[in-house]
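Model the whole thing, not chain by chain.
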Amino acid sequence: MVSFMGATASRRLELVGITKAYPGCIANDRVEMTVKPGEIHALVGENGAGKSTLMKIIYGVVKPDAGQLIWNDRETLIEGPAHARRLGMGMVFQHFSLFQTLTVTENIALYLPRQEYGSLRRLRDRILSVGEAYGLDINPDRHVHTLSVGEQQRVEIVRCLLQEIQLLILDEPTAVLTPGEVTHLVKVLKQLASEGCSILFISHKLEEVRTLCDRATILRGGRVTGSCTPAETTSEQISRMMLGDDLHIEKSMGVGAPGDDSLSLEGVSVSPGGAFAIALHSIDLTLRAGEITGIAGVAGNGQDELVDLINGELAPDAGKLLLDGRDMTAEGVLARRRAGLATVHADRLGRGSIGAMSLTENRLLTAYVTDSDAHGFLHWRPLTERTRELIQNYQVKASGPDDTAASLSGGNLQKFIIGREIAQAPKVLVCFYPTWGVDVGSANRIHVELARLRDEGTAILILTEDLDELYLLCDRVGAICGGQLSPLKPGHEVSMETLGQWMAGTFSAPQTQGVQNAH
Amino acid sequence: MRIEARPTPSPTMRYLSPLLALGLTLITGAAIFSALGKAPLASLHAFFIEPVSTVYGLSELFVKVTPLLLCATGLTLCFRAKVWNIGAEGQFVFGALIAGAVSLQLADHQGFWVLPVVIASGVLAGMAWAGIAALLLTRFRAHEILTTIMLNYIAIQLLLWSVHGPLKSPSGYNFPESELFSPQTLLPTLWGQYRVTIAIFIALLMLAVVWTVLNRTLLGYQTRVMGENRQAARFAGFNGNRLIWVLLLFSGGMAGMAGVSEVNGPVGQLTTNLALGYGYTAIIIVFMGRMHPLGVLLASLLLGLTYLGGENAQMTLGLPKSITGVFQGLLLFFLLACDFLISHRIVLTPMRGHRPSNTSTREVTSS
């Protein structure tokens, strides 16, 4: 699978003085970096530090204004992604580039030259065998729109592994994976590295960088502010290089003071919408005012359906949904928003925002409920002003309300979207992957804001795969598996081990623990 | 030379593309004229300049622009939401047919209420015709492109049946035509001997309304969001079906009004050849005008001119009237081709081999 063409090279990739300026900002400023063959190299930095631009330059998506790129000891001008691929590079983007209406096999076929995969049937077999070899379990016949975020990422990774690969670039690969999956991915990456493939790895999880990566390059404001051997460096030291000295990370989020029931699901069941969608089986869930409830789970276990159901896009077959004691089972999205429900969807650019529209217009996407006058007219000046405030209050890095959503980095867009929902003072807030792909500083800021909202009496539901986040924020935790919800218990009563069992679908955990103790 | 995708769509090219398409159309048009043995420049002059070189010619341009602009105004809103109503032609014809039938019924009635009733009947008929497509789309998910095109043919057949049968003039020597409408059912002309009617003001007024709706109202915002990203619209709780109904009924009503403007304007009776393709031409206008009200106004002037030019070319150059269709087709063809340049660009690359430093790989000395 792995080509050894470049095995003799002393440097797989070297960047010399790479500079790229966009109107109004310098994304990369004389960046220098060296990646050796078989090295796992981390690229660390805040949102907007220029990591994504640098990745895109390496992969030929963006042309640098100045600087050299040296590939296997030869100066190389990458003409585009297809050229980069021929040279032996593969890239997994943070926002996946998959066609929703095609199957996994068809998507991968589109990415490969015809002569390389032969027939769809042969390609399907290869996908299965690569998936098996690396433990990346995917069904090649499923349509991508039925896949969860985590599963789509697996498709992207398998797609890269099908080619002869010398450098695999991954933009925040572990952000959507469960602890088990992360362990698995680490194994895959280490295996690849041992075969001589270099890995360039963007991550915000410094602990992970420290255990996995051989080298790390740290970017801040487009410049390299340091490089280190992560195993010999503390997370604090890396953080400082990333963020400067003045960053304060809030470590404690306090606890909630549960009040009345705000949102209740009573025996809600949903039959699967698509051929491969997950059914929800008699879900009972109560969110209380002033409390954060967290649900862990492997991607694709019914989280999408649960969020759609609560948001009002998916009608249940059985059961009831009560919002502030009112039966709203039959009501749609708008009525629920009016009643004080707000949702932050995991699919930031697909549903939470519209890439081509301005931030003012994107704020309106959910704020429209309150922000048009009685006759349905919009007054742009106050709307723009409110957007400007939002940008300031949540420290969104944007030049102003007229920026398009697509021009923002993932973390900045997420700050914007969460800020937008919080600003509407919701009674119930559902956050689906609140900090996926968000850097340490921004994630901390989002956590602090969520804790503040909780203290103001909002009932918050968090669906996440980041267990640190779950334990940090949530008063009660549980897990979802195969469309079934585990019991919800106070965080301090649920061990990481128990939670892991719940995520795997074994819900009788307390008894199990008792039995284990008896032995 | 090679073609590569732009990192972001070019806004400049979005506005340049229609002009480029126009230029290419003129060049190709000149080539066609000279291939037909006509002097190319003189022919272009006869096609594009001569028809509007007199006041009467200009007034005739607005006679053509009136139905085109009315149809295009409705479609602008529809297309912004990516609701592809291709049925303005059928809605136009059905509006004209019903307004014509009502006009014939009211031939002997006097009163200020007669004309409003005629107009309302045409508008409602257009809305009803579009409403069929809306019902099929929202209830059965039948794609609007297919249903609206099929409804076009049905509307035209209904018109033909009507003027050959129940609405045929008893005093018309068995020609498939209705009786001429009474004056009180006709739209008033603006002045003198010219045929332009007050419908042009209705068109301009509605264009301003559409501009306001798109830019200043929640409905327009929701329309634009739906066009950009339906999943986001659904997530945000916009009522997609309601929007589809509103947009299709609006554009149907506008096309129906266009039918009234034609049949109760310059034509003055129901005939078999009412369907001159205004509804289809309006589609070109909306794309040419970048779905922007001002652009749509300019494009409707240009496309209106192709009708006049075709008629003039027929008279002075002895060319078939289908030359209008040729120019409209060229314009759309080149527009679609030039629109490719919004998302892609042509890059001039130096010839390979001349400058080795620019080839893709080169040995570097190890530092």
